[in-house]
Write a structure and sequence with these properties.
By secondary structure, the chain is α+β, with helices and mostly antiparallel strands. It has three helices and eight strands; from the N terminus they run βαβββαβαβββ. InterPro entries: Glyas_Bleomycin-R_OHBP_Dase, Glyas_Fos-R_dOase_dom, VOC_core.
Amino acid sequence: MRCSYIRLLVNDYEACFHFYSEVLRLPVLRGDGTSRYAEFDVESGTRLAINQREVMAEALETDTADPALPHQDRIAVIFEVDDVDVTAAKLVADGARQAMEPRDWTAWGVRAAHFRDPDGYLLEINQPLLPDLAL
């Protein structure tokens, strides 16, 4: 696994986008001030991303309140893997707590599964979705 993103799940997306793009002057790789998701170049193999908090809560179906969490997620650590399904099955077999089974997130361009560490932090494993090469 390779840590590909640190994703901050933010309440005020527009203010955070302005902060990272204009105040810190991080180059924007994807997204804009209204897209609710953006990626920034932090001059390393890992990218910094911001995501409107409600978007992730809706995706993980925690927007109706997960009783195991004192509040909605604030951060997600993203790991890129070669095969999400194989890696997810191994993590589950090894005792990892799965929050969402593998599925295609076509709007995000990835196949992903979600887990929680022992303290409840959100972890995502993903792989890029390959375009359909059928002619």
